[in-house]
Amino acid sequence: MAPSPTLTALLQAAVAAYGLAWALAALGNRWARAPLAAGLALQLAWTVWRGCAIGFFPLTNKAESFSAGAFALALVALVAWNPARPFALTQLSLAVAAGVTAALFPQQLDFATPLLRTVWYPLHVPISFLAVSTWVAAAAAGVCWWADRDRAWLARVDRFALWGFGLWSASMVCGGVWGVLAWGAYFMWDPKIIWSVILWFHYASFVHLRLTPSLQARPWVRPALALAGVAWVLVATVGTSFFFGRSSHAF
Amino acid sequence: MPSEPEPRAATRSGRFAWLRSEGLGLLCGQATVLLLGVGSLVLARTRDGASAEVAMDDLTAFFRVPSPWHAWLYLLVPVLGLYALNTLLCTWDSVLAKWRRGVRELSAYAPALIHLSFLLALFAHGVGGLWNREGATLAIGPVWQPLADGRQVRLAEARLEPLPNSQLKSVEARLELRDAAGRIVEERLGYNQPVSSGGGARLLLLSKVDRAATGARFASGSERCVAAEGAPCSIAGLRVELTGLYESGHWGQVPMAVVHVASADGLDDGFHLLEGQERRLPGRAPLRFERLEVSTVVVARSRTAPGNPWALGSAALLVAGLALMGRRWVRLA
């Protein structure tokens, strides 16, 4: 189904609002949060509209997947708002990039296939996007630590990494249960699933870093691994969708 | 999931202290990341070659046909073994130290639950990877047919809900399963709704809904009956058993039925009939193969997955551990 022009314009307006938030944050303007919140409201309207049109949670194609990613990134940026430029700009850059990508993909409305029609799907995917966005916030805090060496950023890196780990674990449980119900297996040798496990192991190690005595004198390790984590996140989310060939995860 | 740092000086001494060190855990975690990352690339690169037989969650294919391409997995096994041992020892030390200090808050033991969940997940992967098996694919129609476990199954009803664009939205199939004693139980089968037993260890999963030949309709004089493979019918004093049924395109342009007929007066004969063809039988009206009976069938695959119940237990422990974390989510040690 072709979407109405108004629907398409909603996403474009949301992305423009994120862009404005990025520009204001870059200028150090304290009103940067306003367009960010407006962008979220617009994107929420876009999502609800599409959901009503197809009668299900709108996560059926690449436009909707990237849009959900942009929404989660913007939401975490708003909730965890900090005016420090590297922190806000790191998150907003990725939100804008995901939003622009969503807007560039075909905007057609697709009905959810029968296998997607389970409660585990709208739990698994949005929770995983929230986890990823929280890890981006951890990396953004790491960038701030590199900039000013304030130990308060290290505490933020730890906290965001832990929250992301908790969310990712919950997402993997939902995905695993769905996998058993749909395919009879909670794990498969599939690129996206392997990379999901990689992310879990990376951050499972990460949350133990601050407790490791031999690393107490090396505070740079956590920001560095938080940044590496975002690189793995990009491989897991974008890389496996485009560069690893066949996958049970179409998006 | 981090435990509080514990005064483990007493347990850190000795030749095997390195086995319970946080450093080893970190090393194993990052080695796992590296090896799985390499593995994902190798599997994508060799999908039509060395990894062609690797399917679902199977581990045996990596060892059945050993290949240098799979070195990452051969290395991963000991790394994960070491990781499991390290996790077990660290968790034991941590729990013991807390208990001896008189710590009785449940949240203090949340990380231990998450560690146990990890160990159980590794065990589930091992069990599942080695012993999970794909079973037969069945086209279940209205006629009883045997299952691998000795029971019989048939489709009692299939409700198909279409989308506005005529694609399938949902399927709910009502299956009847009959055991050797003739007891019948009903099960529902649909997408994301397998017939499951043993905590997910034995599954019947819906692949698709189709139309298929499920029987043959016979006529003799004014009488009619429908026979299917394994389900004979009676007509004009004859017992008609269908021993083979071939749709058009298999033997020719016309469907063919292979039948065996028997009667109380001594008739016992076997022959084949093309659709529309009839066979003269001594002392009675001819038997005619009127048409193929085509009905809705649900195509389902059976799967034995002994790792699934362990993975379910692991997931439950993980969720319990995360839920019990409480204030630890906000106040890091």
Structural class of chain B: alpha+beta
Oligomer: heterodimer
- Counting DSSP H or I runs of 4 or more residues, the number of helices of chain B is 6
Tell me what portion of residues of chain B adopts beta-strand conformation.
35-45%
Q: What is the number of strand segments of chain A?
A: 0
Structural class of chain A: mainly alpha
Q: Report how far apart the termini of chain A are.
A: 19 Å
Distance between the termini of chain B: 12 Å
Your description of this structure?
The complex is a heterodimer of chains A (251) and B (333). By secondary structure, chain A is mainly α. Chain A folds into two domains: 112 residues; 134 residues. Chain A contains eight helices and no strands. The longest helix of chain A is centred in the middle third of the chain and has 33 residues. Chain A is flat and about 55 Å long. Chain B has 333 residues and is α+β, with helices and mostly antiparallel strands. Chain B has a domain of 147 residues. In chain B, strands 1, 6, 7, 8, 13 and 14 form a six-stranded antiparallel sheet that branches. In chain B, a hairpin with a 5-residue loop joins strand 3 and strand 4. The longest helix of chain B has 30 residues.
Layout of strands and helices, then pairs:
The complex is a heterodimer of chains A (about 250) and B (about 325).
Chain A: H1 5-26, H2 33-54, H3 62-79, H4 85-104, H5 120-148, H6 151-183, H7 191-209, H8 221-242
Helix pairs in contact in A: 1-2, 1-4, 2-3, 3-4, 3-5, 4-5, 5-6, 5-8, 6-7, 7-8
Chain B: H1 9-12, H2 22-45, H3 60-64, H4 71-100, H5 110-131, E1 133-140, E2 145-146, E3 152-162, E4 168-178, E5 184-189, E6 195-197, E7 202-220, E8 223-227, E9 233-235, E10 238-246, E11 256-263, E12 268-274, E13 278-281, E14 284-304, H6 307-324
Antiparallel strand pairs in B: 1-14, 2-3, 3-4, 4-5, 6-7, 7-8, 7-14, 9-10, 10-11, 11-12, 13-14
